[in-house]
Amino acid sequence: MTSADHHNEIRHWVDTTAGPIEVREMGTGPSALLFVHGVLVDSHLWDGVAARAAELGYRCLLPTLPLGAHTRPMKPDADLRPPALADLVADIAAAFEVQRITLVGNDTGGALSQIAAARHPELVRALVLTSCDAYDHFPPPCLRWLFSLARVPGTLQLSAFLTRSRRVRGLAVPRLLAHHAPTDEVVRGWTRPLRDKAVRRDIRAVFAGIDTAYTVDAVARLRDRRDPTLLAWGADDRVFGLELGRRLAADIPGSRLEVIDDCAAFVPLDAPTLIADLIHELHIEARPPT
User: Fold this and answer.
1) Buried residues in 241-258 as b, exposed as e (16+ CB within 10 A)
2) Which residues in 85-123 belong to E strands, given as ranges?
């Protein structure tokens, strides 16, 4: 199913083995960017980056993965462990008949991007990781209490009830995550799906499947990577920490680390134009000489 809206984007629903995935498409061009968000947010995290990238001539694919802010629940028996979630990236690329992508991830989506690049090296022509989980930071130590709390019966349902209040929604994205908070409309879109019992079932399955073994294995496999890799880390990121970005840069051959000033963990919110420009620069540098 496909529909257009007033933001110069096209909305698609893609049938996958897990269930229906909404994918927004912005821009046209020979190079495709696929953006991966983290838990409890949706593809609107990337709006600013994708809008700028579309202006620069890129085809942008923005899926909302089943990470708690999706509006249609997955099949009751869907595998929502990290490798299966990462494989959805390949399924989406195939649905759009894209054979090579630039994969762009943030937060949990950065971990899924690492796993996807390790599992599908032929698909990922370039990898862009903004502040995200890696190694034994999956989830990061400062947020483990939140992941544990979310597994307690009734917690997510209470969160869905509380975030009906605009005042509570205003606290949903603290400065620990972003210096530039999203609009209330965007945050409402992130919190409303938790009212659905089946969506809560999905995100509990996601939380239950998170294991550092997946991220440790992914980086070990990425040590053989030779395609372009950009690491764009927030200088003020206190969730994942700059040291994690430096460690990835040392382990992934030929990767480039950019430290973004005045930027916290949600890099796409704090520096959208800069991230799009860095992606464009990465593509220019990777072009073969004529």
Assistant:
1) bbebbebbbeebeebebb
2) 101-107
- For 103, 106, 242, the CA distances from 260, given in Å and listed in that order, are 19, 14, 10
Query: Which tens digits make up the pLDDT trace of 189-198?
Result: 999 999 999 9
Mean pLDDT for all residues in the chain: 90
Residues in a beta bridge with 229: 127
Average of per-residue pLDDT across 258-272: 97
Q: How many CA atoms lie within 13 A of 205 on its CB side?
A: 20
DSSP per-residue string spanning 172-199: SS-TTT-SSPPPHHHHHHHHGGGGSHHH
74 phi/psi in degrees, rounded to 5: -80, 170
Task: Identify residue 172 by its one-letter amino acid code.
Answer: A
Closest CA to 210 of 123, 106, 140: 140
* Exposed e or buried b per residue across 63-102, where buried means at least 16 C-beta atoms within 10 angstroms of its C-beta: bbbbbbbbebbbeeebebebbebbbbbbebbebbebeebb
Judged by phi (left if over 0) then psi (alpha if -120 to 50, else beta), residue 97 lies in left
What is the distance, to the nearest Å, from the Cα of residue 266 to the centroid of all Cα atoms in its chain? 10
User: What digits encode the pLDDT tens for the residues 143-189?
Assistant: 776 766 666 676 766 566 556 666 656 555 656 789 998 898 999 99
Residues 81 and 17: their CA atoms lie apart, in Å, by 13
For 151-172, give the DSSP string.
TSTTHHHHHHHHTTSHHHHTTS
Q: Provide the pLDDT for residue 169.
A: 63
For residue 236 the two structure tokens come to 């003020």
